[in-house]
Amino acid sequence: MQSKENLLTCTEEVRVRFNETDPLGIVWHGHYIVYFEDGREAFGRQHGLTYLDIQKAGYVTPIVKSTCEHFLPLKYGETFRIVTTFINSVSAKLIYRYELFNQQDQLICSGETIQVFLDSDNNLCLYNPEFFQAWKDKMGL
User: Fold this and answer.
1) At residue 37, what are phi and psi to the nearest 5 degrees?
2) For 38-75, what is each residue's pLDDT tens digit?
3) Model pTM?
4) How many helical (H) and strand (E) elements, i.e. helices and strands, does the chain have?
């Protein structure tokens, strides 16, 4: 469990693009997973844990689980906020929680992704890689 004091979050504003919508102008459900990635990348830039940082350390982090719950639609031209929260775990994995809010501050969608660490030989890491543990220590996690 993680205390509220050391939750690491990032907020990114995004505008719905035309190519993300169906003929009714509503965002197609598959694009929400892409929005989650937008949130992860913004989180990495803000907190010093980008995919490039992970690759430089010799690891990749494939997603092994994703969940997504939809509450309200997003439409072409709307802007929304992605709030991405890192969920600390003792396991060697990256867990992110996402909340998408419209301009009226209504919850549009929420979800979570779980990524594991693979080394350069594609072996699953059972313990936190050294660079990741150093990052967690730096962040007070």
Assistant:
1) -65, -40
2) 999 999 999 999 999 999 999 999 999 999 999 999 99
3) 0.93
4) 3, 5
